[in-house]
Design brief:
Blueprint: H1 5-34, H2 38-43, H3 53-72, H4 86-101, H5 105-108, E1 115-120, E2 123-128, H6 129-154, H7 161-164
Antiparallel strand pairs: 1-2
Amino acid sequence: MSFSLYDASIPLYLQMMRNLDAILDKAAADAATKGVEISTLLEAKLAPDMHPLARQIQMVSDGAKGGAARLAGIEAPSMADTETTLPELKERLAKTIAFVEGVKREQVDGREGATIELKFPGRTMTFTGASFLTTFSLPNFMFHVVTAYAILRAQGAPLGKMDFLAAAQMA
């Protein structure tokens, strides 16, 4: 059996969202021991013109559910981006994980050549399923996962590379 579009996407989205969920728990526990308000972490940014941690988590969710849905040729669930607390953000990750878990191999595999269009104001980007995954979806998704991790590290959370790669230890 060859490596498939499903294998290159769905397990990675799931692994990284689960790792991010665990990273958030570890950072929250550390913040509690240091007397740091969780809101301080959720509002933290790497640079003034970047989104804060809370928005990065929403964008991780958007990247995974949107990527999985487009690859499968289905609609992604709508989420309003109204989460402001850690429990709300963790619930969003849980809902996104549940959605992505529901995407079946047979919905994704074989769609490597399918046309996927992303419409933006003033621009439409057109991809094949394979190019969407490799040149847009995964890089965008990973950017927001890495940025969330980096924000927490910059705020002093005791995180390391193995926290980021956690599920890879079990492979």
